[in-house]
Amino acid sequence: MPLWLDLLVRVVAVLIGFLVLPLVVGQAEHKVMAHMQGRLGPMYAGGFHGWAQLVADGVKFVQKEDITPRDADRAVFRLAPMVALFPYLVVILVIPLGPGGLVAQSLDVGLFFVLAVLGIGVVAVLMAAWASANKYSLLGGLRGAAQLLGYELPLVLSAASIAMAAGTLSLPGIVEAWNPWWLLWQAPAALVFFISGLAEIRRPPFDMPIADSELVFGYMTEYTGLRFAFFLLAEYVGIVVIAALTTVLFLGGWHGPASDHLGWLWTLLKIFAVAFVIIWLRVTYPRMREDQLQRLCWLILVPVSLAQLVLTAAVKVAL
Amino acid sequence: MSEQAERSTPGKGLVNGLAVTLKTLTKRSTTQQYPDVEPDLPPRSRGVIALLEENCTVCMLCARECPDWCIYIDSHKEEVVVPGAARPRQRNVLDKFDIDFSLCMYCGICIEVCPFDALHWSPEFEYAETDVLDLLHDKNRLAAWMPTVPAPPAHDVLGEPSKEEATATRKLAGPGAATAAKTARPSVRPKPPTTATPEPPAAPGPTAAPEPPAAPGPTAASGPTAAPEPPAASGPTAAPEPGQ
Q1: Chain A residues near residue B18 by CB distance under 8 angstroms
Q2: How many Å is the maximal CA-CA distance in chain A?
Q3: Which of A203, A259, B139, B179 has CB 3.0 to 4.6 Å from B97, enough for a Cys bridge?
Q4: Which residues of chain A neighbour B20 with C-beta distances below 8 Å?
């Protein structure tokens, strides 16, 4: 296969995954949330149980007027949704789907790259918040910045633990080195990573920056139409990315029966299972207050991840 | 104690919450898909108010009692010549009976207060309009709801029979058996209320009492249930009623 064709196939595959997986997760959220609340959810769009609801939503968003507030910083305001969406697209590039190089771009420093790119999310939030020239947006954005900066620490520390255990920063390498008993040994790190991942994508119960009952819609208040749709898409791609990272780092990625042939299926199944848990948590728990949010991060998650790091180091040295 | 024990187990509330949502997920949802599936309404739902024009005597009680004054009534008097009577009788003819459903709050006071059962609840509710002015239903439209009114609930078998029923059976039995109709009833209560007692001994006149003057109430004109008394429905004689 010539290089350009190979490249094209990989890029198209990533793009398809980037566009399809969030829709699947979004539709699953519609239906799961509805049934958890004793409702039916969308039933009309597309005929069968409203399967085309998100497509219809997309069409609606495209038709809506694109409004930029008069006092907004126009360039920054318009750029923010792209900046919010782009890091996730790049992260999907390096997530391994199956064994034998079934990954769009294998990087030796994959984990480092992923964590660095995910950090760009803060910038997007701050851009949107500041450029909107709206006090609710600004409040939401500052809360978001405080939250993202705070939770970045346990996220990185717990990821460092697994990297230390595997002895590599490459994502396929980590999955390769994974053992079922790591589930036990790295459980605290897995929990910390998952929870701070939830906070990173600002999902309930960590949606204080958005907090629609007090801040209108946080840093997204002034956005309409396609730009708002980009923010929403970023949220659902965020779910996919966090679920995929949890899967790859802590749940053994493609490991499972017949993983040589069905590795990609195992990875996808695990991703959807984790995404289901993310939705489940959203339906179940109320939003945390800002102080509770910071408290959880600094008093529980950071110490736990540090302890896990020490444990991992000790085991690594002892063995 | 148990609450303290619950609180002392860390994370128990969190797990309970997750269990609740997961359990609900496995149950059938309670949504009724309304436009596709007709809603399963309780039998005496308050949907819209129907008017039985024949029963209305323009007493205006409904319009006066309406808390937000959404009933508009106009009428005029008509003279009716009754053969054999000394002078012509007057009766009220309904010209306008409008209910503004944009104001109505469905309290049902008008229906409660109507002495002659001219107003009824109908369970129909699909009369939304794009123009608020179209929510003013005139008397024809209100009368059109009448066929949708469900039949009245069955009479309580242990209850006292209605006045109309009692009068009819008494008349059928003749003057002598007036008390038999009352004694035949299973006497659940020791003594029927005193309002009923003065009638029977007073009634047995020689002319079989065409219209017991002792009964001041709505015996004669109370609409559909008054079937055994044909002369009652025939207009002017039936209206020695209050509240003009």
Answers
A1: 280-281, 284
A2: 63
A3: B139
A4: 284
Interface mutation vs chain A, best among B25, B28, B36, B37, most A CBs within 10 Å: B25
Q: Are residues B69 and B139 in the same domain?
A: yes
**Of B87, B80, B114, the residue nearest B99 (C-alpha):** B114
What is the C-alpha separation between B52 and B97, in angstroms, rounded? Answer: 11
Q: Does B37 touch chain A (CB under 8 A)?
A: no
CB contact under 8 A, B21 and A43: no
Q: What are A19-36's pLDDT values in tens digits?
A: 888 889 989 998 899 998
Residue B53, in any domain of the structure: yes
- Min CA distance, B27 vs chain A (Å)? 8
User: B20 at the A interface (CB within 8 A)?
Assistant: yes
List the domain range (segments joined by +) for residue B138. Answer: 48-148
CB atoms A39 and B22 under 8 Å: no
Binding site annotation covers B70? Answer: no
Q: Do the domain assignments include residue B166?
A: yes
Distance from CA of A268 to the nearest CA of B (A): 22
| pLDDT of B227 | 40
pLDDT tens across A70-91, in order?
888 888 888 888 888 888 888 8
How far, in Å, CA of A215 to CA of A233, rounded? 21
Which value, in Å, is the radius of gyration of the alpha carbons in chain B?
A: 27
**Among A148-162, A217-231, A251-265, B175-189, the least confident range:** B175-189
Residue B231 resides in a domain: no
Residue type, A110: G
Q: Across the interface, do B29 and A283 touch by the CB < 8 Å criterion?
A: no
- Note whether B31 contacts A38, CB cutoff 8 Å: yes
Per-residue model confidence (pLDDT) at position B224: 44
Specify if B171 maps to a domain.
yes
In this structure, what DSSP letter does residue A297 have?
Answer: I
Across B199-208, average pLDDT: 43
Nearest to B15 by CA among A186, A285, A195: A285
Q: How many domains are contained in chain B?
A: 2
> Which of A118-127, A236-245, B173-182 has the weakest average pLDDT?
B173-182
As beta bridge partners, residue A122 has: none
DSSP letter string, B155-224: PPTTSPPPHHHHHHHHHHH-STTTTHHHHTS---SSS--TTTTTHHHH---TT--SS-TT--STTTT-GG
* Bridging pattern class, strands B119-122 and B48-51: antiparallel
> What CATH number is attached to the domain comprising B112?
3.30.70.3270
Task: Indicate if B121 and B192 belong to the same structural domain.
Answer: no
CB contact under 8 A, A38 and B22: no
Q: Are residues B126 and B172 in the same domain?
A: no
Cβ within 8 Å, pair A38-B33: no
From the list A17, A33, A12, the residue with the least C-alpha distance to A240 is A17
Average pLDDT in chain B: 74
For residue A283, list chain B residues with Cβ-Cβ distance below 8 A.
21
